[in-house]
Prior knowledge:
Blueprint: E1 4-5, H1 11-20, H2 26-36, H3 51-60, E2 61-62, E3 67-73, E4 79-85, E5 91-99, E6 102-106, E7 110-112, E8 127-130, H4 133-147, E9 153-156, H5 166-177, E10 189-193, H6 197-204, E11 211-215, H7 221-227, H8 236-250, E12 254-260, H9 268-278, E13 283-289, H10 303-315, E14 320-322, H11 336-347
Parallel strand pairs: 1-2, 6-9, 9-10, 10-11, 11-12, 12-13, 13-14
Antiparallel strand pairs: 3-4, 4-5, 5-6, 7-8
Helix pairs in contact: 1-2, 4-5, 6-8, 9-10
Amino acid sequence: MDKKDICSYTYSELQDEVKSLGEKPFRAGQIYEWLHVKLAEDFDEMTNLSKDFRRRLGEEYEIRRLTLAERQISKKDPTEKYLFELQDGNLVESVLMRYSYGNSVCISSQAGCRMGCRFCASTIGGLARNLSTSEMLGQIYRVQKLIGERVSNIVVMGTGEPLDNYDNFLKFIHMVSDDHGLHISQRNITASTCGIVPAVRRLAEEGLQITLALSLHGSSQEKRRLLMPVAEKYELSEVLAACEYYFQKTGRRVTYEYSLVQGINDTDEDAAALARMLGGRNCHINLIPVNQIKERNFQKPCRKNTLEFKNKLEHHKINVTIRRERGSDIDGACGQLRRRHTASQKEN
């Protein structure tokens, strides 16, 4: 019999489990604290539980571990990248970025990705599987233990499409912000989506306060189709309407991510079209000079052209920034470290 994934239980679910074992309800609080505050990796660490109870927990439940397969530390900026191996051998990436306001961790929501965005290394090879809630939480917990510091901000922008793993992602948001656990403010959590319209609308109804970031990457439906297969399923007008609905329901300003690809979506016409599209919306555009990967021939525009694109948007009163490049010397882009590590393993 497969053991139950105890770290994927919410506080109330764990209370029910403890009751089913014939234990007093307060034991759930003790276990939850060990798992989600003290970040225990073994039931024997839970010293305020009896040895017999710890033995029973070990027989029926497991604390799924993430093993550190590789760690890269940037020499250019305070950024670290981690490759974690899951219990079934799948690999996921996480990135630590240190800022003056605290530590931010970018986590993965899937092993691989099936969205097929043509400039992204994460999607090469397709989707292996969804991550469990505990595997998403585990990335944050492992980083905290590795650096000995608290994480204050979370970005779900690593490998995978979080809204393609909707239920586990939603549970993750509730658990990581739960005051029984790490209690990270939902306002300090950002999740990126390529624009799965029904899921965006569903998320708007959940009563969350996270920031939604849409991977836009095209100034028109046609341009978007060149880069993102998801555009074959959802019209840009539908995607923008869903994002506006999210803003209306939550009051949270939507961020529009726009990867600048030289000669494809970085022209004067693109800037004008983007300004017409988003003008008047309470939003923010995050310009991202595309990360170059060897499997694709996409090139980033030069710094001068990137600044000119930004200036054109600002001329139209659009709130816009250029994402600061982080970890450029350590496989910083999503999927790069995972692919390189997998390739080297095959060679050996």
